Amino acid sequence: MRKIIMMAYAFLMTNLFVAVAFAEEHGAAGSTDSSVKAALALAAGFGIALASFGGALGQGKAAASALEGIARNPGASDKIFVPMIIGLALIESLVIYALVIAFMLAGKI
After folding, report:
1. How confident is the model at residue 102 (pLDDT cuts 50, 70, 90)?
2. Where would you tag: which of 56, 68, 75, 79 has the fewest CB atoms within 10 A of its CB?
3. Which CATH number is 33-109 given?
4. pLDDT digits (tens, 9 = 90+) for 64-94
5. Angle in degrees, CA 94, 7, 15, rounded to 5
6. Domain boundary assignment for the chain
């Protein structure tokens, strides 16, 4: 059931944003249609929202797993803590990339 839901979600997201990907400019160079501007604003908002949601879930799961491992074996805290911090930094970098892309999309509005 979960696979069907994920496929339906991917199909829905693809069809929502395909019009923006293939949009053509009409009129003078540099001018965009208001529907394209609205779609860009929507894409920027959804992109950063999904990235922050996914990043928060990933960071929460990573921290919970690391703390559980440290609680089970306090002697291994140094071996668990450093990779956890590196993992959290990499997760956060993906969210920052999404923020940069959202700013780039917002700059086209």
Report:
1. confident
2. 75
3. 1.20.20.10
4. 999 999 999 989 888 998 999 999 999 999 8
5. 80
6. 33-109
Task: Look at residue 29 and tell me whether its pLDDT is greater than 60.
Answer: no
d(CA 51, CA 101): 11
CA neighbours closer than 13 Å in the CB half-sphere of residue 54: 14
pTM attached to this predicted model: 0.59
What is the 3-class SS of 17-74, one letter each residue? Answer: HHHHHCCCCCCCCCCCCHHHHHHHHHHHHHHHHHHHHHHHHHHHHHHHHHHHHHHHCH
- Return all residues near 9 (Cβ < 8 A) that are at least 6 apart: none
Q: How many CA atoms lie within 13 A of 34 on its CB side?
A: 0
The four Cα atoms 85, 89, 90, 93 give a dihedral, to 10 degrees, of 170
pLDDT in tens, 5-15: 877 777 777 66
| Number of C-beta neighbours around residue 77 at 10 A | 15
